[in-house]
């Protein structure tokens, strides 16, 4: 089956301005499927945008299936930055006979694109489509680190049978999926009054990384090491405050502001490890002035800019590009090793595999902050090191 079989072309009238595009605008830079499907044999693409016209799983947010074309209307009017983009727009995946069919379509598209070293940028639908995005990694024989930007944990009661799920409980399907290839889950920006204490206890027992919105109130750069640990990212537009992104029926007064959302998207693009990203829960039915569509377009623009600013400095490249720091714990239980990139000043910590767990590697590298190194210098074990070590066992 060819990728073409999953997609319907886009009506150019939906995103082309009356006067046409200027030569600097992305509408003339990207290969957009209006008549001819992008040819992966003839052309090299780095990024592939596609829409999903299925909002059946979006709880209390009917209308998200309309998101892709409203996003395109704003995105392709933006000017290309200081980079030469190679973007394909594959068009839209129509909703399947059942929502499970839609998940399978997303799975097959994501899997094929990742195998081609092309990053899918998914414009949904409900956030339950993250499940289809995750399934795309099933045949890739690798563990997955999932980062979700959301104001709550979507692990509610799921009484659906089979593969179908909803946007308020799709994480259950991911956590319980067999075979299990999820290594770590991180939530960025949850708001405590939307989360029950039992859910927090579950996250703690699973050694997952969850971060309150307030942690980033004074410094959004603290999200960068968390984002840098992701293979795939799911961004719920409801995590942005209503003043900046009103086009979501579940939007709330608090959340990330528009500038912070764009910076998070740029960090995602800069992540050498990231191979797919989805932006979900944008509902044009509530976007009276088009502001949220504009913000989403700018977020994807910053993601693209971040991608073309990648440092390619994950600590597997020549050792001369890194500084190695060693510290000892107060209790004498061992040594901790940190790695700092000379190119970007970003930090990683080494967490050793238990004996016999990995034949090819002695340790697992985890993105971290300078503060984690300072904690270790003071003789204390960083919490991130301990949680990671527990997951490796």
TrEMBL record:
Signal peptide coordinates: none
A UniProt-annotated Pfam family: Arginase
Organism in which the protein naturally occurs: Pedobacter vanadiisoli
Family indicated by similarity: Belongs to the arginase family.
Protein name stated in the entry: Formimidoylglutamase
EC nos: 3.5.3.8
Xref: InterPro entries: Ureohydrolase, Ureohydrolase_dom_sf
Organism superkingdom: Bacteria
């Amino acid at each position: 089956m060819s990728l073409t079989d999953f997609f319907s072309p886009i009506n150019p009238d939906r995103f082309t301005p009356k006067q046409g595009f200027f030569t600097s605008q992305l509408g003339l830079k990207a290969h957009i499927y209006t008549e001819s499907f992008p040819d992966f044999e003839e052309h090299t693409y780095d990024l592939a945008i596609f829409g999903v016209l299925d909002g059946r799983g979006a709880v209390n947010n009917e209308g998200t299936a309309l998101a892709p074309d409203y996003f395109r209307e704003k995105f392709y009017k933006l000017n290309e930055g200081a980079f030469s983009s190679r973007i394909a727009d594959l068009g839209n995946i129509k909703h399947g006979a059942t929502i499970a069919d839609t998940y399978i379509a997303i799975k097959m598209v994501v899997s094929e694109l990742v195998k081609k070293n092309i990053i899918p940028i998914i414009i949904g639908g409900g956030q339950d489509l993250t499940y289809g995005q995750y399934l795309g990694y099933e045949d890739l024989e690798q563990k997955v680190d999932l980062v979700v930007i959301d104001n709550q944990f979507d692990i509610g009661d799921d009484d659906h049978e089979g593969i179908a799920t909803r946007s308020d409980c799709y994480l259950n399907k991911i956590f319980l999926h067999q075979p299990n290839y999820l290594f770590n889950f991180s939530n960025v920006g949850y708001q405590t009054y939307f989360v029950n204490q039992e859910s927090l206890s579950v996250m703690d027992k699973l050694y997952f990384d969850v971060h309150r919105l307030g942690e980033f109130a004074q410094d959004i750069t603290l999200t960068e090491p968390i984002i840098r640990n992701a293979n795939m990212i799911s961004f719920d537009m409801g995590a942005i405050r209503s003043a900046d992104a009103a086009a979501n029926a579940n939007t709330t007064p608090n959340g990330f502001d528009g500038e912070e959302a764009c910076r998070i998207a740029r960090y995602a693009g800069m992540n050498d490890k990231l191979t797919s990203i989805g932006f979900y829960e944008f509902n044009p039915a509530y976007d009276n002035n088009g502001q949220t569509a504009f913000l989403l377009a700018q977020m994807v623009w910053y993601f693209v800019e971040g991608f073309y600013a990648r440092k390619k400095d994950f600590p597997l490249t020549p050792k001369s590009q890194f500084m190695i720091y060693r510290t000892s714990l107060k209790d004498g239980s061992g040594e901790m090793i940190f790695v700092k990139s000379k190119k970007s000043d970003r930090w990683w910590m080494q967490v050793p595999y238990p004996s016999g767990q990995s034949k090819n590697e002695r340790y697992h590298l985890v993105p971290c902050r300078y503060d984690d190194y300072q904690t270790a210098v003071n003789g204390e074990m960083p919490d991130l090191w301990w949680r990671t070590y527990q997951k490796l066992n």
